[in-house]
Write a structure and sequence with these properties.
The protein is α/β, with parallel strands linked by helices. It has a single domain, classed as Ribonucleoside hydrolase-like (Inosine-uridine Nucleoside N-ribohydrolase, Chain A, Alpha-Beta Complex), CATH 3.90.245.10. The chain contains eleven helices and twelve strands. The strands form three sheets. The protein has an eight-stranded mixed β-sheet, with helices on both faces. The longest helix is centred in the first third of the chain and has 18 residues. The mean pLDDT is about 95.
Length: about 300
């Protein structure tokens, strides 16, 4: 598979943290647990910085789904529930994604999401379309395989894999679809990676905080509080990480998610990182400002209510 060669100068320009309002799509395995819901709401309550053009349902497979296709469908249904509580129409906005993970680079999934992403990316003006992915990156990889030219028109912000120093990267989003992860790391698309363990694992909150700042903040706040309460039966002395809001926070204020330019990693067959200085550069988060990110989310929920 041959991909367009992006000049280093253009890639570095695209990898500069945005300072103005951006156009974006959100690719999310929304029903996988409860953090995607917070991220979707955060994005939609931030119109001053984010023009969310579409939301794509990503596949997942765990105890909350019978297989990847069921996970995608349940994620799509969860997107609809969130949009309903925000009084937003899903028509032409919420789209189904891949019914499974990428088997190889020769068989991309031609889903509604992948085809919509291609259309929006190729229609983008001089400014890139930001593709924020907070699940398995199957839909994005499929779109790139179907139309490799989109790498010249997008910036991918992906919450996937663990920190570079972590002894393995068997993280849920990356580990479900290693073929898609390898493609995104290898194809040269401008990529901002948000690691999980070691970085976004600091985005912890607790039931008392949710009851104080989320519950009672309109229909959507009550729903977020409800799913938070239902995630663990025993909430005593327990915190919950809300990983996925980090990807949204990076676009809202890059100071909240400090990043470095690093060489694109290689995912080994053992699901570990390997590094080579000859690889192209990507941007990778090294930490998060937990308090600033949650303050922004809670403030916007209060304002929305």
């Amino acid at each position: 598979m041959r991909f367009p060669v992006i000049p280093d100068a253009l890639r570095l320009e695209r990898l500069q943290p945005p300072t103005d309002k951006v156009s974006m799509v959100l690719d999310t395995d929304t029903y996988n647990e409860i953090d995607d819901q917070f991220a979707l709401v955060h994005a939609l309550l931030s119109p001053e910085r984010l023009d969310v053009e579409a939301v794509y349902a990503a596949p997942f497979h765990n105890e909350r789904s019978t297989d990847a296709a069921d996970g995608m469908e349940k994620s799509y249904e969860e997107i609809l529930r969130l949009l309903d509580r925000l009084d937003l129409s899903p028509d032409g906005f919420a789209l189904r994604g891949s019914p499974g993970f990428l088997p190889d680079w020769d068989h991309p999934h031609r889903s509604e999401a992948a085809l919509d992403l291609i259309e929006r990316a190729m229609a983008a003006s001089d400014e890139p379309l930001y593709v924020v992915a907070i699940g398995a990156i199957t839909n994005v990889a499929s779109a790139i395989l179907i139309e490799p030219g989109i790498v010249e028109h997008i910036v991918v912000v992906w919450l996937g894999g663990h920190a570079r120093h972590w002894p393995h990267t068997r993280e849920f989003n990356l580990g479900q679809d290693i073929q898609s992860a390898r493609l995104v790391f290898d194809c040269g698309v401008p990529l901002v990676r948000i690691p999980c363990l070691g970085v976004t694992s600091h985005l912890l909150t607790t039931l008392p905080e949710i009851e104080r700042y989320v519950q009672g903040r309109g229909v959507i706040g009550d729903y977020l509080a409800e799913i938070f309460k239902g995630y663990h039966a025993d909430q005593y002395a327990r915190s919950k990480v809300i990983w996925d809001i980090a990807a949204i926070a990076y676009l809202l204020d890059a100071d909240w998610v400090p990043t470095d330019l690093v060489h694109s990693p290689i995912v080994t067959d053992q699901a570990t990182w390997s590094f080579a200085p000859s690889r192209h550069l990507i941007r990778c988060a090294r930490s998060v400002d937990r308090d600033a990110i949650f303050r922004d989310l809670f403030t916007k929920l209060e304002r929305h209510a």
